[in-house]
Specification:
Helices cover 55% and strands 9% of the residues. It has two domains: 2-83; 94-230, no CATH class. α5 crosses α8. With 231 residues, the chain is an alpha+beta fold. β2, α7 and β3 form a beta-alpha-beta unit.
């Protein structure tokens, strides 16, 4: 009990001299919770307060520096990991592109059709996405694996009301290198929703690629079925 009183008195003196909790803890190995209890009603004043504020400012600068350096280290580590795994891919073979294209359609393509709908009496491939990289990859699959020419494609751009049809169609025409006269657009949402959605959400809408040939749908379906059977 006597030791506790001595520690308290010494800690109080150090606090009165402008020392931080961390410095006092280091000096006496006293838990922070104990110091908080001891100094709960103790008010630091005068020169000691000035010293503490200065230390707090210095600590904030050190903390900011530490956080910045840590963020840079993590950023470098993330980029090194990304580069390492990027290098594992190399050139993609036709077989690999075949599997990639089939899985892409499996995930993002239309598989259920209403025979009375806009696509006619038979299903045809319809692939939808807002990511230009996925669109380009799927187009390579159509061209290099299935032999589908761009003349057989009918691209539709689905838009939010706040988007410019001309700007969006021009964007997707440039990305896909499909002639602009083959494009159509559709405003997918009512104007009542204009104020409810962020303006930067899907800035060019979603592109739907329709292939005007039923055989291609069944080719892709066969590839998907083959993948399912092989797993």
């Amino acid at each position: 009990m006597e030791k506790r009183r001595l520690d308290y008195q010494k800690a109080l003196e150090l606090r009165s001299a402008g020392m931080t909790y961390g410095e006092i803890r280091k000096a006496f190995s006293i838990p922070k919770s104990t110091l908080s209890s001891w100094f709960k009603y103790f008010e630091v004043k005068g020169k000691a307060l000035t010293i503490l504020k200065k230390k707090q400012g210095e600590n904030m600068i050190l903390l900011a520096k530490f956080n910045k350096e840590r963020s840079l280290r993590i950023k470098d580590e993330n980029e090194n990991i990304r580069r390492e795994f990027e290098s594992l891919v190399g050139n993609i073979s036709i077989r690999e592109l075949t599997l990639i294209g089939a899985v892409l359609y499996w995930a993002e393509g239309q598989k259920v059709f209403n025979h009375k709908g806009i696509y006619g009496p038979y299903p045809v491939p319809v692939f939808s996405n807002s990511d230009p990289s996925l669109i380009i990859l799927f187009l390579k699959f159509l061209e290099n694996v299935l032999g589908v020419s761009k003349s057989l494609l009918r691209p539709w751009v689905y838009l939010y009301p706040n988007l410019s049809p001309q700007k969006s169609v021009n964007y997707w025409a440039k990305i896909t290198k499909i002639p602009i006269n083959q494009f159509r657009y559709y405003t997918a949402l009512s104007r009542a929703s204009r104020q409810k959605r962020p303006k930067n959400m899907l800035p060019y809408g979603t592109l739907h690629i329709r292939v005007r040939r039923r055989q291609e749908f069944f080719k892709i379906k066969g590839l998907i079925d083959g993948i399912i059977k092989s797993t």
